[in-house]
């Protein structure tokens, strides 16, 4: 679970031409910390869901739960570097709670990184500001080392290093965008906006929105729409299917499966989602009902088997390799 872009524009406003810029580094550190706090919450929920449901995902990857940051991806790289006390560009951004990186105790926030296995990512070319490519390359490199060697050694500017062994998770990265309020998925990533209203909700309800977006990825919705077209009826059906999977994903991660319906009811009432999304989504009240209807099935599966095996027990709305399936009568 690793961010690809740090989108916050943190450089100070330009000063008059005849005066040097005055930068409030305390304010810059606070702005970065607010972003990282929101990101931490996303990484924690994302890891918990992706790890707990790995047994049922058709595609899994090894992960240590580490997300790095590159100062070149900030709007003011020099300001961000100075604010965080870094000599070069790469540092720890976040580690998901319960992940191998977190359990190692080595990956404290903003600890400066000088080597990812055999490579120093600071030596890779970049054209700042807002240059996200090295961050992507770093995360791709970490994934490759984990897949090829069953672990990775990461060295820090303070002379320490850590060797970390991964665990399998559903194949999705979780990224936070500062200048965004939506949440969406693209097949390989879940993208959350820092302005998402879900951040105002308690943990299980927040996790329900993360689970909805993860559901799109684990059910192959983006690829299915590419094959079948993004007509409103197709989008409506995959959105309904993602809603219905939410209680299953939540239950496996130890959350209350009813939190999905709670999220939809609160979000729908507050944001009038049924009116705004009627062409490609069911109304919020129907969406809440569809989620709630899955809860007894999930609870029965948990009681019988100790897990909610959605790969075997969940009723699909679409044929993964074909088109729409007949909708079951309610």
Task: Using brief descriptors, characterize the structure shown.
330 residues; alpha+beta; Pdz3 Domain; 2 domains; three-stranded mixed β-sheet; 44% helix; globular
Describe this structure as you would to a colleague.
The protein is of the alpha+beta class and 330 residues long. It has 2 domains: 25-170, PDZ domain (Pdz3 Domain, Roll); 202-313, no CATH class. The chain has 11 helices and 10 strands. The strands form 4 sheets. Strands 4-5-6 form a 3-stranded antiparallel β-sheet. Strands 8-10-9 form a 3-stranded mixed β-sheet, covered by helices on one side. Helix 7 (232-252) runs parallel beside helix 10. The longest helix is centred in the first third of the chain and has 28 residues, at 25-52. It is globular. The two termini are 37 Å apart.
Brief synopsis:
The chain is of the alpha+beta class and 330 residues long.
Outline the secondary-structure elements.
Blueprint: H1 25-52, E1 60-63, E2 66-70, H2 77-84, E3 90-95, H3 100-104, E4 113-116, H4 133-149, E5 152-156, E6 161-164, E7 167-170, E8 173-177, E9 183-185, E10 189-193, H5 203-218, H6 221-228, H7 232-252, H8 259-271, H9 273-276, H10 284-305, H11 310-313
Parallel strand pairs: 8-10
Antiparallel strand pairs: 1-7, 2-3, 4-5, 5-6, 9-10
Helix pairs in contact: 1-2, 1-5, 5-7, 5-8, 7-10, 8-10
Number of helical regions = 11
Output the CATH topology of the largest domain: Pdz3 Domain
Report how far the terminal alpha carbons are from each other.
37 Å
Our Rg estimate from Cα atoms comes to: 21 Å
Mean pLDDT: 92
Assign an overall shape. globular
Q: Could you name the CATH homologous superfamily of the largest domain?
A: PDZ domain
CATH architecture of the largest domain: Roll
Helix content: 40-55%
Biggest sheet: strand arrangement: 4-5-6
How many E strands?
Answer: 10
| Element string (H = helix, E = strand) | HEEHEHEHEEEEEEHHHHHHH
Low-confidence stretches are 1-13
Strand content: 5-15%
CATH class category label of the largest domain: Mainly Beta
What's the domain count? Answer: 2
What is the makeup of the main sheet?
A: 3 strands, antiparallel
Look at the helices and sheets and give the structural class: alpha+beta
